[in-house]
Design brief:
The complex is a heterodimer of chains A (475) and B (99). With 475 residues, chain A is mainly alpha-helical. In chain A, α13 runs antiparallel to α14 and α14 packs parallel to α18. Chain A contains 21 helices and two strands. Chain A folds into two domains: 255 residues, no CATH class; 213 residues, no CATH class. In chain A, strands 1-2 form a two-stranded antiparallel sheet. With 99 residues, chain B is mainly alpha-helical. Helices cover 79% and strands 0% of the residues of chain B. Chain B has three helices and no strands. Chain B is elongated. The chains are: A mainly alpha (475), B mainly alpha (99). At the A-B interface, α6 and α7 of A face α1, α2 and α3 of B.
């Protein structure tokens, strides 16, 4: 079937969910990696289909669109999911393998929610897709229920997540009340007339979405959740649901709104500034690398909001660039953390002492990921930050760009503290860290990603600008 | 009664729910608060739907009710899991409430 038809990819993914589910019924307690390989094969097949899809078609009376932005989202979700499933295959402990099919059913259900969300042009579809994405995430956070922290992390994530869902839905009810329809193409006209109900609704929704993307002051669940959940899953939730949140924000606040979007600039820029400053400052004292990456991830959300605050074609395009750069850098860093934790049994930064002498390749990959996240030239993250600052300066918001640039130095400091441990300090244990082949492939993919984007940023930036253009041209 | 009366009722219920979520220390109590917040949304939706003479809002309400049930079922499962490992349903360690 032609993947350019809307809902074809989603239909195949749903079929894959059913296959894994049935597999689980017949292979109870099998304890091997078959479910993971089937999932991986299915996802690779779907990725090929998504890459071959052409934008432009609409289904279900305009509530489900397959446009440039939704294709961008779907491709990003596919890459993130393939990398995450690859890394999950390296988790060999019996307590995980025994229930592997449950894990993959929930994982794919959440992915299905994201794919639908990327295409939603109707408030009902948006809400249902958001919940389909979120509910399995709570379950997956607490999946390793034998581990002490897992239920607590799941509980916190669940409470914050469902409160934010309630707030989003409350805001959504006001938007519906003002528009009299759930079609999102009615929103721009209402925003232009400064309808108080719509503004109240959209402001509430922005707060709720702020929880989902973990902007300060709605970020408190992030470090606990990241620390509690298994690492390949954390690598995935550090990017995929955040991207979904940004796609929803683009659809609600940017698409077709045109000049009216300027209304949100003050709120978004304050949110961005606060998020960058507090995310970076809170990352400094962390001694656990997953918590450090969690807080640095919050700071990166701030930079993404900075691009959104520009409310321009280049701003939105560069947010997309940043998301992809962040995907490779952040997921790669988490995969290295996974390899080290599997051998050392801990996520403490002290365990990275002398890593360069023990496993030079692993240490070099982590260094590259950290440098990319920190924004050193000729890494993907450098161009991402530069382009974001550029877009912000274009709009005359010099102080925001200045603030972002200053805090980048703070971020480099805590990334380099980890690098110093790896390269300068001597190790107490000279044995190299074993890295399973699947994990090596995932890490290699991420390294290739940041280097490719770092050396040839232009074609990527051009493609993302084209996507951003479609958002503004409909006005 | 006008639309604003229903909206006010929904706002009051939403606020009570939010207050419960913020102040309750028992996880089940927090779940009840979330449930109240979502039901306030349903009142809002049905009221808007009635006053617009448009059934879409009611359809959304049905979706919202179904999803809430799924969400709360998962929430209770997590509370039971927490209770098994910690022997408590108190959200004492949930320090984000204080932050």
């Amino acid at each position: 079937m032609d993947p350019s038809w809307p809902l074809v990819i989603e239909g195949w993914l749903f079929a894959l969910v059913l296959v894994i589910f049935v597999l689980g019924l017949f292979r109870r307690q099998a304890g091997d990696a078959v479910a993971g390989w089937v999932t991986l094969a299915g996802l690779v097949g779907l990725s090929i289909a998504v890459w071959n899809a052409e934008p432009g078609r609409v289904a279900l009376e305009g509530t489900f669109v397959l446009d440039e932005l939704s294709l961008f989202g779907k491709r990003l979700f596919m890459v993130a999911s393939v990398l995450s499933v690859l890394a999950t295959q390296a988790m060999t402990h019996a307590s995980f393998r025994r229930r592997g099919t449950e894990y993959y059913v929930a994982f794919l259900a959440s992915l299905l929610g994201m794919l639908v969300l990327a295409s939603a042009r109707d408030l009902i579809v948006l809400f249902v897709a958001f919940e389909l994405m979120s509910i399995p995430l709570y379950f997956l956070t607490g999946f390793l229920k034998g581990e002490k922290a897992a239920p607590e992390g799941a509980m916190k994530f669940f409470l914050v997540g469902s409160i934010s869902s309630a707030v989003v839905l409350y805001g959504l009810s006001f938007v519906y009340g003002a528009a009299g329809t759930t079609d999102m193409s009615a929103i721009p006209a209402l925003m232009a007339t400064v309808n108080p109900l719509v503004l109240l609704g959209l402001a509430l929704m922005l707060g709720g979405l702020g929880f989902k993307i973990a902007a300060v002051p709605f970020h408190m669940w992030v470090p606990d959740t990241y620390e509690a959940a298994n690492t390949p899953f954390v690598a995935w939730i550090s990017i995929a649901p955040k991207t979904a949140g940004f796609l929803a924000i683009f659809r609600l606040y940017v698409e077709g709104v045109g000049e009216g979007a300027v209304l949100w600039v003050p709120i978004v820029s304050v949110l961005a500034g606060v998020t960058i400053v507090s995310g970076n400052l809170m990352a400094i004292p962390q001694s656990n690398i997953k918590r450090l990456l969690a807080y640095s991830g919050v700071a990166h959300i701030g930079y993404l909001l900075l691009g959104l605050a520009a409310m321009s074609v280049s701003g939105v395009g560069m947010v997309l660039f940043y998301l992809v750069a962040y995907l490779f850098g952040n997921m790669g860093a988490f995969f290295v953390v996974q390899a080290v934790a599997a051998s050392e049994g801990s996520d403490e930064i002290e365990k990275y002492q002398g890593l360069a002498r023990r496993s030079p390749v692993l240490a070099l990959s982590l260094l590259l990921f950290l440098l990319s996240l920190g924004g050193i030239p000729f890494m993907a993250g450098f161009w991402a930050k530069l382009f974001i600052f550029w877009a912000v300066v274009e709009q005359g918001m010099y102080w925001l760009a200045f603030l972002g640039a200053v805090l980048t130095v703070v971020a480099l400091y805590y990334y380099l503290v980890v690098a110093r441990r790896m390269y300068i300090e001597a190790s107490t244990n000279p044995a190299p860290i074993p890295v399973p082949v699947v994990l090596m492939v995932a890490i290699g993919g991420c390294v290739a990603g940041i280097l490719l984007m770092g050396v040839y940023p232009e074609p990527w930036a051009r493609a993302f600008m084209r996507v951003a253009m479609t958002l503004f041209s409909t006005s | 009664m006008g639309l604003s009366a229903y909206l006010a009722l929904a706002a009051v219920i939403f606020s009570i729910g939010l207050f419960g979520v913020m102040t309750r220390r028992n996880a089940v109590g927090i779940l009840l608060g979330i449930e109240l917040m979502l039901n306030a949304v349903n009142i809002n939706l049905v009221a808007f739907s009635r006053f617009h003479g448009d059934v879409t809002g009611m359809v959304l309400t049905v979706f919202a009710i179904c999803i809430t049930v799924a969400e709360v079922a998962l929430g209770l499962a997590i509370v039971i899991l927490l209770f098994r490992t910690r022997r408590t349903a108190m959200a004492d360690h949930v320090d984000w409430l204080k932050g």
